[in-house]
Records
---
Amino acid sequence: MAVRAVLVAVDHVSEADLDVRPDAKSWPARQVVHHLADASMHQGISLRRMLAENTPVLVPFDESHFAERLHYNRPVEASLDAFRANSFANIELLESLTEEQWRRAGNQQKPWPLTIEGWLEEEVLHIHNRLMQIVNAPAGGRVIADPDEGLKLSR
């Protein structure tokens, strides 16, 4: 499970390595952890709105704006706890859905709706990409290849 992999990966990054910036454009692992916490809260609300409202308009998440304004240089423990709690709450919610609920959707201001299944696929890919950033950041951005994906691993 991607969530547990993130938690294990961060546990194996030293305090000093949390701040290694692979290059000028990439986030260090510390910022990635804070981003994951904020993103999991934002996306969890989107999931709940798709289930509770009829075709809600889902506002995009401006990750750069959040990173600039929310002090991503602070300790990571609380953000890890928030990421863990939000992710597991989302998993529990998804496990309880009926077939009808899985067909619900939201309007993501694109030509196609975002379904619950699409939401889940996007979340797994997002967490996977951020996990790769956490794993690769302390190595100065030297990418540990993912043989199954041609994913962009930096911001």
Note: The two ends are 22 Å apart (CA to CA).
---
Amino acid sequence: MAGAVREIVLPAPVTVNAAESYIAAARLGLGLIQIPRYHAEASIAGNELVRVMDSFPPTNTPVTLLYPRSRQLSPRVRVFIDWVAALFRA
């Protein structure tokens, strides 16, 4: 029934802790998911998942980097922080 509307009431919400698990749940028809686009690109390209609600993008999620406080920041940590900051600026 292409284009038919179906309503499925689930007995409980599905809660997982990995994008791959959300994708598996969506493939099983357990509802809509919201995950970072890069996790779902292959499934969308392979027509396993379909994007919906494109006109309602999710809000931005802040990213926080935590590291031990010390008098001198490790050069490795500084390079990583600068790299991540540059990625998010782009």
Note: Residues 19-89 form one domain.
---
Amino acid sequence: MREEVVQVALSQRRTLLRLKAWQQDEALVELHGRRLPSRVGETLGGPLRVQCIGPGDWLILSNESAASSLLQELEGGLRQRGLAFVDVTDALACIEVNGPASRDVLSRACGLDFHPRTFPVGFCARTRFAQVPVVIECLDDSPRFDLSVSRSYVNYLYRWLADASAGV
């Protein structure tokens, strides 16, 4: 029996928020006592994962908290400092791609260099993948990747990844 070198699965993520800073000096915002990443592509791991997807623009991902309670918890102090939260949980779906050949499969549909030196664990990028806008994050060395994609494209992208993985 052949061992699978790439696995593609829909992930059940509970909450996804977008945080936007409207003022330049908000780059050093703290969330739960941790400073948000300020450089595009940086991430912050943990139960409350944060991806810096643009200058003053972050995605906040949680598998432990519901969107409404997380919004209520975070919004208070940050809104007064020129920051805005939007719940995008129902707008974006998550596809997880993992296994030894994951980087090869991902490189088939995207201009990004997925080599570990260029796209290490804890790095994310907002890009077009198989002609669809996505945010890709490298979660660990297995390697395992998280792709956030509009729900209207999730079936297409899932099938594209499954087909590309079958040929590895």
Note: Residues 91-166 form a domain with the Gyrase A; domain 2 fold (CATH 3.30.1360.120).
---
Amino acid sequence: MAEAGAERVIVGRISGLYGVQGWVRVYSHTDPRDNILRYSPWQVRVGGEWRALAVLGGRRHGKGIVARLADCQDRDQARRLLGAEVAIGRAQLPELESGEYYWTDLLGLRVVNKDGIELGRVDHLLETGGNDVLVLAGERERLIPFLPEDVVLGVDLETGVIRVDWDPDF
């Protein structure tokens, strides 16, 4: 949900159009989903280029979010944003307490089991409803449930390692 080590944090994607006055549907990665509306401007990647767009309005709509962005006055202008990633500047995120981290901080970290066997690096995370899942890239893709104290034994951002209780054959 982010570009590892970047100044930008991916917080969503423009997934559709809403109405005829330039509003867009947004798939949000924030929790709760409407937290994405607290940040402005959004950085929107259009045609490989990042553009800062002020959020002029927004609200929950059904299970999703709709938003009105600057420079987006009608459906045709909104259509150019379809599929665009939505990011915010890392500095826009609230400060965390010691020992806390954002999901974006986990991307690229090495995952090592309690026996010292490296299982791969965090490629991305999945939200499954029951629990979140670390998706590792390495010799093969691995899916490891993000269950603190049960499976995930520790996250050390300074050394870039997540320790897990996980059998390497899974």
Note: The domain at 8-92 is CATH 2.40.30.60 (Elongation Factor Tu (Ef-tu); domain 3).
